[in-house]
Amino acid sequence: MPGAEFVPSDHEQHGAAMVRSVEIPVIDMSSNNAGSRMAQAAMEWGIFQVVNHGVPASAMSELQRVGREFFALPQEEKQRYAIDPSSGKAEGYGSTLKLDVPGGMMTWSEFLFHNLAPPSAVDHAVWPQEPNGYREANEAYFAHLHILTRRLFEGLSAGLGLEEVAMEEAFGGDNVVFLQKINFYPPCPHPELAHGVAPHTDLSTLTVLMPNEVPGLQVSRDERWYDVKYVPGAIIVHIGDQIEILSNGRYKAVLHRTTVSNEKTRMSWPVFVEPPMEHVVGPHPQIVAGEGQAKYKAKKFKDYKYCKINKLPQ
Predict the structure, then answer these.
(1) Residues with Cβ < 8 Å from 309, sequence gap 6 or more?
(2) 177-185/206-211 β-pairing
(3) Phi, psi of 247 (to 5 degrees)
(4) How big is the CA angle at 68 (ends 67 and 74), to the nearest 5 degrees?
(5) pLDDT, block means (10 residues), the chain with 314 residues
(6) What are the C-alpha distances in Å from 314 to residues 70, 217, 245, 303?
(7) Distance from the Cα of residue 22 to its chain's centroid
(8) What's this model's pTM, rounded to 2 decimal places?
(9) Under a CB-based contact definition with an 8 Å cutoff, are residues 149 and 273 in contact?
(10) CB atoms within 10 A of CB 88
(11) Residue 256 CA from chain centroid, whole number
(12) Biggest distance spanned by C-alpha atoms of the chain
């Protein structure tokens, strides 16, 4: 189901009070206290930005280039990669650019999904053949992002008092799925009536996101919405539902949404880091032993995803 990772539950859709601007934690990954700062941010915000993260600026700019050029292609060319609902997969191109949605807020975006890893989950047939260099740019970026993700897992694991390898192992080890998405939000004639993406928490463990320079991401904390400031060269890290579950609620999945502009095009490149579908995720036994009670059920990821998409009790 396209966009399925963005399905909000009813309690997630609280109204927006006045939006405030705030600098969410910005963490220097080269500093000695990066791990403890990540853990604190995951507890207090569920989101943070990282700098000195090891992903070269050249790899980031090349990924942005091929993404921009893909969405500049003629519509019929993009439609060659349209998501096939009958396949049961979310990979491919889609669009929600509609102005005639009756009632409520509309969503205003184009998007492209495809897996980056593990190799068994990668189908290059759904990767665009144009523009030139698309595959090479994605593979080069992912090589660095994979290392960063491991460092994030290690720091967040240590912040829970677990071994550094605990989180990655709990989510599937070498079989962890990396799902790339490109969000394309063109200028919208009625931005006051639209979301780029409606309020939601991510189904993933982590979402590791590269934005362009156009702001639009907003996060909720204490029933208030905050604009996330653009930090050049930074990568944004969202805590997703699976880490909240594993941590038994110590880390919080961030409720967030995106706005659109009537003047500028906003883009983002989130990578959803997910357990394999058959993998069971629950509160870590070591945490439950210390706290005396599991606050979440252990469940196969595919079952958790199905329940959230269909707004069923977990």
Answers:
(1) 1, 4, 7
(2) unpaired
(3) -80, 0
(4) 105
(5) 39 50 90 97 97 98 98 96 85 81 74 97 95 97 98 98 97 97 93 86 97 94 91 97 98 95 95 98 97 96 94 89
(6) 38, 27, 11, 9
(7) 20
(8) 0.92
(9) yes
(10) 7
(11) 10
(12) 57
Tokens 């694991």 locate to 157
Question: For residue 61, is it left (φ>0), alpha (ψ between -120 and 50) or beta?
Answer: alpha
Number of H helices, E strands in the chain: 8, 17
Residue 136: HSE in the Cβ half-sphere, 13 Å Cα cutoff: 7
Which are the catalytic amino acids?
181, 200, 202, 256
Residues in the chain: 314
Rounded-to-10 torsion of CA 251, 255, 259, 264: 20
**DSSP string computed for 135-182:** HHHHHHHHHHHHHHHHHHHHHHHHHTTS-TTHHHHHTTGGG-EEEEEE
CA distance 21 to 206: 24
d(CA 165, CA 216) in angstroms, rounded, equals 34
